Amino acid sequence: MSDDLVLAIDQGTSSTKCLLVDPSGTVVATGSAPVPIRYPRPGWVEQNADEILTSVLTAAGQCLAEIPRGRVCAVGLSTQRESAVVWDRRTGEPAGPVLGWQDQRALPICDALRKKGQAARVREISGLPLDPMFSAAKLRWLLDETPHAAVGTIDSWLLYALTGSHQVESGNASRTQLLDVRAGTWSPELLDLFGIPSTAVPVVTASSGNLGHIGAHRGVLAGLPITAVLGDSHAALYAHGARTDGGVKVTYGTGSSVMRLGEPLSEGVCSTIAWNDALAAEGNIRSSGATVAWLASLLGVDPDLIGHMAAGTASDGVVLVPGFGGLAAPWWDDTAVGLISGLTLGTRPEQLARATIESIAHQVADVVDVMGPVDALLADGGASGNDVLMQIQADLTGVPVLRARSTNLSALGAAFLAGGFTTPISYDEFRPQPGDAAAQRSAWRAAVARARTPHHRS
């Protein structure tokens, strides 16, 4: 029917957002709910699985409050990736904390495998470098604390909690480091290397199709069919309409994701599944919006003010490398440290703000450098709303940046796949301007080299 609506649930790191979307792509209702994040020790990042589920139900309730139930025909899920969840398979209750994708506590597990010479083999099968950002080592840590539990990622937990079925979508599964990325099935060798019982992992399913009906005990969602699930970065790529390997998408969030369809051309980026069985190349950046939040907390100001502070000044030689939990793509150096260089007695908060915004663009440019030929960057995510960042990004990469005028691209991508429709996305364009980009890139690379430990430097 022409008036059928799709409910898109976008479960992110810090909040859950819901959109009701009609076949023309128009958003007719919204809802949102925050999700707490806890940092119990340095390098530890935790959430609570029940709080994540509650945020989904709350946001969905807001979104559906004024809509006749019969108009909603399908549900699409977009979720944060790599975060690890365990639950008691007998009771269905969470059996430990959610270890967030930024969590570093499983680094010793990765180090032990690296010392055994397994890093190359892990990458060969999974398409991912051996790194605690991915789910496998975190799941091993959780199982050490809670043996005999069922395991999964955020999409797997939500599918279980909503439908009672223990399953995981293929793109999210490819981020666990347990999947044979080309076969699309769990790798017995990787399960054995990480010590994950095959009985604990979910069934791998396609990204779209009949993924289950929501149970009667889930209030306003009861009985609705889930017809699409995507990782948030994958959903944004889908929303941009990038169905071939020509488009390069950058999602600016807590971290950033640079992704294009097709095989990787460099070991600096990962091989992953975009949706269903389509392969993609992706470079992950650990700290983007998180860097802005850190500086805002340090200065005691609202994070939105950082962008305003950066707009009216230059960084004046100050370079910030946000290696808070190491550096991800293209370096994959989990022992890199955070560093600020170029400080003088005249350095002011405004210069730090500018260096913070520049650090996001520099990290994206590092990934773009190893992605292969790029005609333009398709930008989305919260920080893409900052015109200063978008212009810096165009200047540092030397290619136009096309910023989606629609917000919530991840939710829209889930809605498009769930509803079987797509609508064109309109963009604002930022073209490269003449300047000192080469000198800035050189100073950035020098700072990155200082932030990295000697045994990782090339």
TrEMBL record:
Keywords: ATP-binding, Kinase, Nucleotide-binding, Transferase. Residues 437-451 have a biased composition (Low complexity). InterPro entries: ATPase_NBD (IPR043129), Carb_kinase_FGGY (IPR000577), Carb_kinase_FGGY_CS (IPR018483), FGGY_C (IPR018485), FGGY_N (IPR018484). The keyword Kinase applies. GO terms for molecular function: kinase activity. Residues 434-458 are annotated as: Disordered. PANTHER family: GLYCEROL KINASE, SUGAR KINASE. The keyword Nucleotide-binding applies. Belongs to the FGGY kinase family. This is ATP:glycerol 3-phosphotransferase. SUPFAM superfamilies: Actin-like ATPase domain. Residues 249-419 form the Carbohydrate kinase FGGY C-terminal domain. Residues 6-237 form the Carbohydrate kinase FGGY N-terminal domain.
